[in-house]
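User: Hey, quick favor. My workstation is busy. Could you predict this chain's structure for me?
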Amino acid sequence: MDFGKLDTEKTNARSENLDTLSAIEIASLMNELDMGAIYAVKQALEPIAKTAEAAAARIPEGGRLIYMGAGTSGRLGVLDASECPPTFGVDNTMVVGIIAGGDGALRNAIEGAEDSEELAIENLCDLGVNEKDVVVAISASGTAPYCVGALKKAKEVGALAVSMCCNVGTKLSGYADIAIEMPTGAEVLSGSTRLRAGTATKLALNMISTSCMVLMGKAYKNLMVDVRATNTKLKDRSVRIAMKAMDVEREEAVERLDKANGSIKCAIVMKETGADAEKAQKALDDNQGFVRRAIAACK
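Assistant: No problem, here it is.
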Protein backbone atom coordinates (compact mmCIF):
# COMPACT_ATOMS: atom_id res chain seq x y z
CA MET A 1 0.00 0.00 0.00
CA ASP A 2 1.15 3.55 -0.74
CA PHE A 3 0.66 5.03 2.72
CA GLY A 4 1.79 8.42 1.45
CA LYS A 5 -1.56 8.79 -0.31
CA LEU A 6 -3.45 8.76 3.00
CA ASP A 7 -4.53 12.23 4.10
CA THR A 8 -3.38 11.48 7.65
CA GLU A 9 0.16 10.85 6.32
CA LYS A 10 0.42 13.99 4.18
CA THR A 11 2.28 17.18 5.04
CA ASN A 12 0.20 20.07 6.35
CA ALA A 13 1.05 23.26 4.45
CA ARG A 14 0.07 25.32 7.49
CA SER A 15 2.90 23.83 9.55
CA GLU A 16 5.73 23.51 7.02
CA ASN A 17 7.85 25.92 9.09
CA LEU A 18 7.00 24.26 12.41
CA ASP A 19 10.65 24.01 13.43
CA THR A 20 11.05 27.81 13.24
CA LEU A 21 8.13 28.65 15.53
CA SER A 22 8.15 29.57 19.20
CA ALA A 23 6.30 27.49 21.77
CA ILE A 24 3.34 29.88 21.86
CA GLU A 25 3.20 29.92 18.06
CA ILE A 26 3.22 26.11 17.94
CA ALA A 27 0.52 25.88 20.59
CA SER A 28 -1.62 28.48 18.81
CA LEU A 29 -1.29 26.71 15.47
CA MET A 30 -2.12 23.34 17.01
CA ASN A 31 -5.13 24.81 18.76
CA GLU A 32 -6.40 26.30 15.51
CA LEU A 33 -5.86 23.09 13.52
CA ASP A 34 -7.43 20.95 16.25
CA MET A 35 -10.75 22.66 15.52
CA GLY A 36 -10.80 20.47 12.44
CA ALA A 37 -11.23 17.39 14.61
CA ILE A 38 -14.62 18.68 15.74
CA TYR A 39 -15.82 19.08 12.15
CA ALA A 40 -14.43 15.69 11.16
CA VAL A 41 -16.42 14.00 13.92
CA LYS A 42 -19.53 15.95 12.99
CA GLN A 43 -19.49 14.28 9.57
CA ALA A 44 -19.70 10.88 11.27
CA LEU A 45 -22.46 11.52 13.82
CA GLU A 46 -24.95 9.20 12.15
CA PRO A 47 -22.77 6.06 12.21
CA ILE A 48 -21.55 6.97 15.71
CA ALA A 49 -25.17 7.13 16.89
CA LYS A 50 -26.04 3.86 15.14
CA THR A 51 -23.13 2.16 16.91
CA ALA A 52 -24.28 3.45 20.30
CA GLU A 53 -27.86 2.32 19.63
CA ALA A 54 -26.69 -1.13 18.58
CA ALA A 55 -24.56 -1.52 21.69
CA ALA A 56 -27.40 -0.34 23.94
CA ALA A 57 -29.68 -2.95 22.37
CA ARG A 58 -27.18 -5.82 22.50
CA ILE A 59 -25.59 -5.36 25.92
CA PRO A 60 -28.79 -6.07 27.91
CA GLU A 61 -29.07 -9.32 25.93
CA GLY A 62 -25.63 -10.41 27.10
CA GLY A 63 -23.53 -8.67 24.47
CA ARG A 64 -20.49 -6.47 24.90
CA LEU A 65 -18.98 -3.36 23.35
CA ILE A 66 -15.45 -4.38 22.33
CA TYR A 67 -12.84 -1.87 21.20
CA MET A 68 -9.86 -3.18 19.20
CA GLY A 69 -6.85 -1.19 18.01
CA ALA A 70 -3.08 -0.79 17.88
CA GLY A 71 -0.87 2.00 19.20
CA THR A 72 -2.67 5.25 19.96
CA SER A 73 -5.97 3.89 18.65
CA GLY A 74 -5.75 0.87 20.93
CA ARG A 75 -4.79 2.97 23.94
CA LEU A 76 -7.78 5.25 23.41
CA GLY A 77 -10.11 2.26 23.22
CA VAL A 78 -8.71 0.82 26.45
CA LEU A 79 -9.02 4.23 28.12
CA ASP A 80 -12.68 4.64 27.18
CA ALA A 81 -13.51 1.09 28.26
CA SER A 82 -11.73 1.46 31.60
CA GLU A 83 -13.70 4.60 32.46
CA CYS A 84 -17.12 2.96 32.06
CA PRO A 85 -17.23 0.97 35.34
CA PRO A 86 -16.55 3.93 37.69
CA THR A 87 -18.69 6.34 35.66
CA PHE A 88 -21.70 4.15 35.02
CA GLY A 89 -21.44 1.44 37.67
CA VAL A 90 -21.18 -1.35 35.08
CA ASP A 91 -19.17 -4.54 35.20
CA ASN A 92 -15.72 -4.31 33.60
CA THR A 93 -16.67 -7.04 31.12
CA MET A 94 -19.44 -4.94 29.53
CA VAL A 95 -17.15 -2.55 27.65
CA VAL A 96 -13.81 -4.12 26.78
CA GLY A 97 -10.70 -2.52 25.33
CA ILE A 98 -8.04 -4.66 23.64
CA ILE A 99 -4.75 -3.28 22.35
CA ALA A 100 -2.55 -5.16 19.90
CA GLY A 101 0.38 -6.60 21.82
CA GLY A 102 -1.44 -6.80 25.14
CA ASP A 103 -1.44 -4.50 28.15
CA GLY A 104 2.30 -4.02 27.89
CA ALA A 105 1.65 -2.08 24.70
CA LEU A 106 -0.17 0.58 26.72
CA ARG A 107 3.19 1.93 27.85
CA ASN A 108 5.64 0.53 25.32
CA ALA A 109 5.28 0.15 21.57
CA ILE A 110 5.08 -3.49 20.50
CA GLU A 111 6.61 -3.50 17.05
CA GLY A 112 4.70 -5.42 14.41
CA ALA A 113 1.62 -6.11 16.54
CA GLU A 114 -0.64 -4.03 14.30
CA ASP A 115 0.50 -5.99 11.25
CA SER A 116 -1.05 -9.27 12.37
CA GLU A 117 -4.61 -10.22 11.46
CA GLU A 118 -4.08 -13.51 13.25
CA LEU A 119 -3.33 -11.77 16.55
CA ALA A 120 -6.67 -9.97 16.48
CA ILE A 121 -8.49 -13.20 15.69
CA GLU A 122 -6.69 -14.91 18.57
CA ASN A 123 -7.57 -12.05 20.95
CA LEU A 124 -11.26 -12.23 20.03
CA CYS A 125 -11.33 -16.01 20.30
CA ASP A 126 -9.82 -15.73 23.79
CA LEU A 127 -12.60 -13.28 24.63
CA GLY A 128 -15.26 -15.64 23.28
CA VAL A 129 -16.65 -13.13 20.79
CA ASN A 130 -20.16 -14.01 19.63
CA GLU A 131 -23.17 -12.75 17.69
CA LYS A 132 -24.36 -10.56 20.59
CA ASP A 133 -21.24 -8.39 20.61
CA VAL A 134 -20.37 -5.10 18.94
CA VAL A 135 -16.73 -4.99 17.79
CA VAL A 136 -15.29 -1.55 17.04
CA ALA A 137 -11.95 -1.70 15.22
CA ILE A 138 -10.08 1.59 15.56
CA SER A 139 -7.38 2.58 13.07
CA ALA A 140 -6.56 6.19 12.19
CA SER A 141 -5.19 5.15 8.80
CA GLY A 142 -7.91 2.57 8.21
CA THR A 143 -5.29 0.06 7.07
CA ALA A 144 -4.07 -1.80 10.18
CA PRO A 145 -4.18 -5.55 9.51
CA TYR A 146 -4.88 -6.16 13.21
CA CYS A 147 -8.13 -4.22 12.85
CA VAL A 148 -8.99 -5.93 9.57
CA GLY A 149 -8.58 -9.27 11.30
CA ALA A 150 -10.83 -8.11 14.14
CA LEU A 151 -13.67 -7.23 11.77
CA LYS A 152 -13.26 -10.40 9.74
CA LYS A 153 -13.65 -12.45 12.90
CA ALA A 154 -16.56 -10.31 14.11
CA LYS A 155 -18.49 -10.87 10.90
CA GLU A 156 -17.64 -14.57 10.90
CA VAL A 157 -19.41 -15.07 14.24
CA GLY A 158 -22.26 -12.64 13.52
CA ALA A 159 -21.12 -9.82 15.79
CA LEU A 160 -21.73 -6.25 14.60
CA ALA A 161 -18.55 -5.05 12.87
CA VAL A 162 -17.77 -1.33 13.19
CA SER A 163 -14.76 0.51 11.76
CA MET A 164 -13.46 3.81 13.12
CA CYS A 165 -10.97 5.65 10.90
CA CYS A 166 -9.66 9.14 10.22
CA ASN A 167 -9.55 8.76 6.45
CA VAL A 168 -12.37 8.10 3.97
CA GLY A 169 -12.90 5.10 1.72
CA THR A 170 -10.52 3.00 3.79
CA LYS A 171 -9.74 -0.69 3.47
CA LEU A 172 -11.04 -1.27 7.00
CA SER A 173 -14.40 0.32 6.22
CA GLY A 174 -14.89 -2.29 3.52
CA TYR A 175 -15.14 -4.98 6.21
CA ALA A 176 -17.59 -3.05 8.41
CA ASP A 177 -21.34 -3.18 8.92
CA ILE A 178 -21.07 0.41 10.17
CA ALA A 179 -18.21 2.62 8.98
CA ILE A 180 -17.23 5.63 11.08
CA GLU A 181 -14.97 7.80 8.93
CA MET A 182 -13.68 11.11 10.29
CA PRO A 183 -11.40 12.87 7.77
CA THR A 184 -9.04 14.78 10.05
CA GLY A 185 -6.49 15.49 7.33
CA ALA A 186 -2.77 16.15 7.61
CA GLU A 187 -1.30 16.51 11.09
CA VAL A 188 0.64 19.53 12.33
CA LEU A 189 3.55 17.10 12.79
CA SER A 190 3.36 15.02 9.61
CA GLY A 191 2.05 11.51 10.21
CA SER A 192 1.71 11.86 13.98
CA THR A 193 -1.86 10.58 14.24
CA ARG A 194 -1.75 10.71 18.05
CA LEU A 195 -2.59 14.40 17.50
CA ARG A 196 -5.69 15.52 15.58
CA ALA A 197 -6.72 12.00 14.57
CA GLY A 198 -6.32 10.91 18.19
CA THR A 199 -8.47 13.80 19.35
CA ALA A 200 -11.24 12.92 16.90
CA THR A 201 -11.07 9.27 17.95
CA LYS A 202 -11.38 10.16 21.63
CA LEU A 203 -14.37 12.40 20.89
CA ALA A 204 -16.12 9.63 18.94
CA LEU A 205 -15.46 7.03 21.65
CA ASN A 206 -16.83 9.45 24.26
CA MET A 207 -20.01 9.73 22.21
CA ILE A 208 -20.44 5.99 21.71
CA SER A 209 -19.97 4.93 25.32
CA THR A 210 -21.87 7.85 26.85
CA SER A 211 -24.80 7.60 24.43
CA CYS A 212 -24.94 3.84 24.90
CA MET A 213 -25.04 4.10 28.68
CA VAL A 214 -27.63 6.88 28.69
CA LEU A 215 -29.82 4.80 26.37
CA MET A 216 -29.46 1.96 28.89
CA GLY A 217 -30.77 4.08 31.77
CA LYS A 218 -27.42 4.90 33.36
CA ALA A 219 -28.29 8.59 33.74
CA TYR A 220 -31.13 10.62 35.27
CA LYS A 221 -31.43 14.08 33.73
CA ASN A 222 -27.73 14.73 33.05
CA LEU A 223 -26.52 13.11 36.27
CA MET A 224 -24.31 10.04 36.80
CA VAL A 225 -26.73 8.23 39.06
CA ASP A 226 -24.91 4.89 38.78
CA VAL A 227 -21.48 6.28 39.71
CA ARG A 228 -19.45 4.00 41.98
CA ALA A 229 -18.38 5.78 45.17
CA THR A 230 -15.02 4.03 45.46
CA ASN A 231 -12.98 6.89 46.92
CA THR A 232 -13.42 10.06 48.95
CA LYS A 233 -13.93 12.27 45.91
CA LEU A 234 -16.54 9.97 44.39
CA LYS A 235 -18.36 9.58 47.70
CA ASP A 236 -18.69 13.35 47.88
CA ARG A 237 -19.76 13.43 44.23
CA SER A 238 -22.47 10.86 44.96
CA VAL A 239 -23.88 13.06 47.69
CA ARG A 240 -23.79 16.12 45.43
CA ILE A 241 -25.48 14.20 42.63
CA ALA A 242 -28.18 13.07 45.07
CA MET A 243 -28.63 16.65 46.28
CA LYS A 244 -29.08 17.89 42.71
CA ALA A 245 -31.33 15.03 41.61
CA MET A 246 -33.65 15.34 44.61
CA ASP A 247 -33.29 19.11 45.16
CA VAL A 248 -32.40 18.66 48.83
CA GLU A 249 -29.66 19.86 51.17
CA ARG A 250 -26.61 17.73 51.97
CA GLU A 251 -27.86 16.41 55.30
CA GLU A 252 -31.11 15.15 53.78
CA ALA A 253 -29.29 13.68 50.79
CA VAL A 254 -26.98 11.69 53.07
CA GLU A 255 -29.96 10.49 55.11
CA ARG A 256 -31.90 9.40 52.04
CA LEU A 257 -28.88 7.63 50.56
CA ASP A 258 -28.45 5.70 53.81
CA LYS A 259 -32.08 4.55 53.63
CA ALA A 260 -31.56 3.55 49.99
CA ASN A 261 -28.45 1.48 50.82
CA GLY A 262 -26.28 4.00 49.02
CA SER A 263 -28.19 3.82 45.71
CA ILE A 264 -28.76 7.25 44.22
CA LYS A 265 -31.40 5.85 41.87
CA CYS A 266 -33.31 4.17 44.68
CA ALA A 267 -33.15 7.33 46.80
CA ILE A 268 -34.61 9.38 43.93
CA VAL A 269 -37.50 6.97 43.39
CA MET A 270 -38.21 6.88 47.13
CA LYS A 271 -38.27 10.66 47.35
CA GLU A 272 -40.43 11.16 44.26
CA THR A 273 -42.99 8.46 45.09
CA GLY A 274 -42.90 7.92 48.84
CA ALA A 275 -42.10 4.24 48.27
CA ASP A 276 -39.88 2.34 50.69
CA ALA A 277 -36.48 1.07 49.60
CA GLU A 278 -37.71 -2.41 48.69
CA LYS A 279 -40.54 -1.16 46.49
CA ALA A 280 -38.36 1.50 44.87
CA GLN A 281 -35.62 -0.99 44.06
CA LYS A 282 -38.12 -3.47 42.64
CA ALA A 283 -39.52 -0.75 40.38
CA LEU A 284 -36.00 -0.02 39.16
CA ASP A 285 -35.30 -3.71 38.57
CA ASP A 286 -38.58 -4.13 36.70
CA ASN A 287 -37.77 -1.14 34.50
CA GLN A 288 -34.17 -1.97 33.62
CA GLY A 289 -32.80 0.74 35.92
CA PHE A 290 -34.54 3.67 34.21
CA VAL A 291 -35.34 6.16 36.95
CA ARG A 292 -38.18 7.98 35.19
CA ARG A 293 -39.90 4.69 34.34
CA ALA A 294 -39.50 3.44 37.89
CA ILE A 295 -41.03 6.65 39.27
CA ALA A 296 -44.01 6.29 36.93
CA ALA A 297 -44.45 2.65 37.93
CA CYS A 298 -44.51 3.51 41.65
CA LYS A 299 -47.07 6.30 41.38
